[in-house]
Amino acid sequence: MDVKELRKLFPILDQEVNGKPLVYLDSAATSQKPLPVIEAVNNYYREYNSNVHRGVHTLGTKATDAYEGAREKVRRFIGAKSTEEIIFTRGTTTAINLVAASYGRANLREGDEIVITYMEHHSNIIPWQQVAKQTGATLKYIPLQEDGTIRLEDVENTVTPNTKIVAVVHVSNVLGTINPVKQIAEIAHRNGAVIVVDGAQSTPHMKINVQELDCDFFAFSGHKMCGPTGIGVLYGKKALLEKMEPIEFGGEMIDFVGLYESTWKELPWKFEGGTPIIAGAIGLGAAIDFLEEVGLDQIAKHEHKLAQYALEQMSQIEGITIYGPKERAGLVTFNLDDVHPHDVATVLDAEGIAVRAGHHCAQPLMKWLNVTATARASFYLYNTEEEIDKLVLALKKTKEYFSHVF
Ligand code: 7TS
């Protein structure tokens, strides 16, 4: 993988911020977009913008082919059996909410359990809190180990025959922990539960095969994998999706509409009410082509190297606390002595370095870590070791600066 060549495809990276070359280390929040994605969206609007599934005219057919073609690309990309199992959503959040509101409300009652972990993003916590309140089900948490990993033993002890849904993040957006989803799925299934996997931070960075993982539902966002914002995917096993009711009603998703009763289209369209996210899906299709061309294995290898290098270099900074396990995905979350992470991010920004500071939409995890906020540097295929060197140097400067201020 030639990162220097790859970077040429990301025009945004070639700029100065605050007089310094941009070092973008916030891809876990959203990734940058390569030219083939920008051009695919641009071409759609310039050349064949039309609504889809409406039949006759040429542009409409072209748009429909591109939209449904993107669905097939997603199917192949995550190893699903059929395009009936691929539902386009606005993102991971919308996808998980769909499962909670449709599958959750229909299948949970008092005495049932929903099992999640302490390392979930808010979008894999709140939908379950809501559906627990609505149905009388109980929410339970799988505990974490000191290093931010999960032991299968603790999964075994938390999941019971009363558990109906297990919802886990594949890769933590804070700790970088890679969870043993396949083994957790096996435990869930043995207890008669379904498993929902939040793949927002795994899908952009590693080869996913939903059949091999044997997950029942799998959610991810296009914008974290070189695609546009506003598009994401819910994968669900056909047998489950077939029995589920839509949660949004209107155009596009219907078969027959009478005065008092209506019927729905078949899968996957019954879950895609209204004019769909056409440009977004086409852009996501182009992102998938791009990622496959680079190679997911290559990307994973590159990021692993970057993460290990960053851990090695950053852990030498005096007074730094790094959260999460050694074996991790491409991100490092940290705090620097008594310097508030927002101040860290502000000083880094003055150096042209973009990192995220805050609770990372994981307040229960922040509580578990006993902090209110952290800073996070996250990497993608276009990042380099030189950029990590710049980060380390800037962090040393930050520490120096604040030691004089206070
Ligand atoms: N799940 C995980 C693990 C995430 O990291 C995120 C977004 C989401 C779900 C929600 O995705 P969305 O596309 O629906 O918003 N995470 C982050 C982040 O870490 N910083 O900004 C957004």
TrEMBL record:
SUPFAM superfamilies per record: PLP-dependent transferases
Transmembrane segments: none
Domain Aminotransferase class V: 23-391
Pfam families listed in its UniProt record: Aminotran_5
InterPro entries: Aminotrans_V_dom, Aminotrans_V_PyrdxlP_BS, Cys_dSase_SufS, Cysteine_dSase, PyrdxlP-dep_Trfase, PyrdxlP-dep_Trfase_major, PyrdxlP-dep_Trfase_small
Presence of keyword Repeat: no
GO biological process: cysteine metabolic process
Keywords: Lyase, Pyridoxal phosphate, Transferase
A molecular-function term among this protein's GO annotations: cysteine desulfurase activity
Top EC class of this enzyme: transferase
PANTHER family xrefs: CYSTEINE DESULFURASE, CYSTEINE DESULFURASE 1, CHLOROPLASTIC
Family: Belongs to the class-V pyridoxal-phosphate-dependent aminotransferase family. Csd subfamily.
Identification of the protein by name: Cysteine desulfurase
